[in-house]
Specification:
With 620 residues, the protein is of the alpha/beta class. It contains 16 helices and 33 strands. Helix 2 runs parallel beside helix 4.
């Protein structure tokens, strides 16, 4: 068999296998699970019995996510649809919206293109950095693991365009077997015609369909017809009955002695036709199409519906590891399939969550990531010369301090460095910075002041990967009472990417601040959003001018009325959509039993970043 060869495919005469670092997933949110379902899940977990299936929305790099799925799902996925990067330059960018200030007469509504994050840029460079050579290697490693996830009767549908389709075909033949190639589907999307002197206009994408084995059988899918296209294709005169019903003379079969007969147009169209490999009846999403969200690369739901219907049955498992705008997850949900949807982009996960919540009676699903396990793996690989955990942690802290442009301090437990007259604490990769940590930091701070020339300050910058709920308010109050100015700054995920570090692209932003009012009347609680302050982060300067009220920064907020220190359960939410650009600022809840409850509120800003706040309430 002819084989495609590239640098890195072989080492010492053997094919390089993809990295298979498997890590456990962390569930960070459960969405649309009732109180009864929640208690049942807790009871099953406590008894050691398997819990009920939950669809999964996973935020993370597929190079870690896919190997981590193998342990549980190898040979169990019925259908995989992927729409990988095309090298168009738009694969990771999206349009963020700033809505109108509700308290002014002027219209400040605007949109801006959010360029890819450093993590997304790095993924793009890894894919396309050396041109086609790096793409085919990246593609090859991905396809190997995807095949392992499929059941023997499973299908892979992969959506490509003219940039790399021919290279992908060679790799797919090698991994799946030439004999398991089933179709090259042409998706033709008519539109405005433009003349070019360089080439003919590109008006189609291709979708390769591969089976895992000879056992794979597609379900029958008919091609739905619309009236105008069918009349045009028939090339026959359309008559009308007295009641206005349309018909034509059906002449097919005359050669076999069948007499012409009346064929009613509505029945003829309803029957549809057998589907071939040229799909010209599904339109590209253009302009302000109702389906469009924030991604230029978004595909129509009708296209995905056809693929999911053909390649799976109800309750089958569907996987998409480039979910983007969330179309595959939304379609699978509506067609009663189980699904796993993954993406590297935080905004893609948020967009998908909103699309799913827009489906009536959506099944409960979980939002997951690899969290601390990914960071642990990174620290182990980055500082593998450290022979003990303590030495490894010291090397890690010095690395973060260097990125923060701070000098290390030795001999202290909680204070690790200093910069511009402020002390620095570097949080662990394993756990969020807690209120107790802040108290210990402040206590040690006052022991240090006066002993160390670098400590002539009343300020501490606390750097962390994650932070306990309310830390921005509660800990700052404690610090202020002890005459210490603390600032909390998030260690960005970009730190995990060596190239981002080498390019100096690392920025540490302060945590957002959330102010919520709580009123209680009997067993009834009312929450009101009162203020939300976020650092400017990646919002372009021009777009920032349109933000004249704090609520314009909020895209979504949700409430867990009975947080149990396990995972955030989304029991109520309000979010912006095209049809409804406004959000509710107040929500009420009726408790049925007396007790002390923790209310957890999650706010997601217009870029997909989340901020949480916990409030305790006594119900009598």
């Amino acid at each position: 068999m002819t084989e495609l060869i590239w640098d890195g495919k072989y080492k010492d005469g053997k094919k390089n296998a993809p990295v298979r670092i498997a890590m456990p997933f962390q569930t960070i949110e459960t969405v649309n699970e009732s109180a009864q379902q929640r208690q049942k899940t807790l009871d099953l977990f406590a008894s050691g019995r398997p819990t009920e299936w939950r669809n999964r929305l996973i935020w993370g790099d597929k190079k870690y996510v896919l190997p981590s799925l193998l342990d549980e799902f190898a040979g169990k996925v019925n259908l995989i649809y992927i729409d990988p990067p095309f090298d168009t330059g738009a694969d990771f960018s999206f349009k963020a919206s700033i809505t109108n200030n509700p308290e002014t007469k002027e219209d400040e509504t605007t949109q801006f293109v959010k360029e890819p994050s450093i993590i997304e840029q790095k993924a793009y460079r890894d894919t396309w950095g050396k041109g086609v050579q790096s793409y085919v290697h990246w593609f090859y490693e991905t396809i190997i693991i995807l095949r392992e996830l499929l059941i023997e009767e499973g299908f892979l549908f992969i959506h490509l365009d003219w940039h790399v389709g021919h290279y992908a075909k060679c790799i797919l033949d090698e991994v799946f077997g030439y004999e398991n190639f089933r179709n090259e589907i042409v998706w033709y999307y008519p539109g405005r015609e433009r003349f070019s002197e360089n080439k003919f206009q590109s008006k189609h994408d291709i979708i390769f369909m591969y089976a895992k084995s000879k056992k794979s059988k597609i379900s029958y899918v008919k091609k739905e017809w619309d009236r105008d296209s069918r009349v045009k294709a028939l090339r026959r005169k359309i008559h009308k009955d007295e009641d206005g019903r349309e018909w034509f003379w059906e002449t097919r079969g005359q050669a076999h002695g069948v007499k012409p007969y009346k064929n009613y147009l509505d029945e003829y169209i309803k029957k549809g036709g057998a589907l071939n490999d040229v799909w010209d009846d599904i339109q590209f999403l253009r302009g302000n199409h109702p389906e469009r969200v924030a991604y230029d690369t978004q595909k129509p739901a009708a296209l995905i519906e056809r693929i999911v219907t053909a390649g799976s049955k109800e309750n089958d498992l569907v996987l998409d590891c480039f979910v983007g705008s969330g179309t595959t997850a939304a379609v699978a949900e509506k067609l009663n399939r189980r699904w796993i949807a993954c993406d590297l982009g935080r905004f893609a996960i948020h967009t998908t969550r909103k699309r799913l919540l827009g489906i009536d009676n959506v099944n409960p699903f979980v939002v997951q990531n690899l969290g601390k396990y990914e960071r642990q793996q990174w620290m182990k690989a980055e500082f593998d010369n450290a022979y003990t955990r303590s030495i490894q942690e010291k090397a890690y802290r010095h690395f973060i301090l260097d990125l923060f442009q701070a000098k290390p301090l030795e001999g202290y437990l909680w204070l690790h460095g200093a910069r511009a007259g402020r002390m620095i604490h570097v949080g662990s990769v394993d756990a969020p910075v807690s209120i107790g940590d802040v108290k210990s930091i402040i206590q040690e701070f006052w022991k240090v002041v006066g002993k160390d020339k670098e400590a002539k300050t009343n300020g501490v910058d606390i750097l962390g990967w994650e932070f306990a709920f309310n830390i921005n308010e509660t800990a700052k109050q404690h610090a202020a009472a002890n005459n210490v100015d603390v600032k909390f700054k998030k260690i960005p995920r970009e730190v995990l990417e060596k190239r981002a570090v080498e390019q100096g692209d690392i920025q540490f932003f302060e945590l957002a601040s959330l102010d919520i009012g709580l009123k209680k009347e009997g067993k009834k609680a009312a929450l009101t959003l009162k203020n939300f302050i976020i650092p400017p982060d990646d919002i372009p300067e021009e777009a920032r001018k349109s933000i004249t009220h704090w609520r314009q920064c909020i895209d979504y907020w949700a409430v867990d009325w009975n947080y149990k220190d396990d995972t955030f359960h989304n029991e109520w939410q309000s979010y912006r959509t095209k049809k409804e650009p406004n959000i509710d600022l107040t929500v009420t809840h009726q408790y049925t039993e007396a007790g002390t409850y923790t209310i957890l509120v999650k706010v997601i800003d217009i870029l997909g970043n989340d901020t949480t706040k916990a409030i305790d309430i006594d119900i009598k």
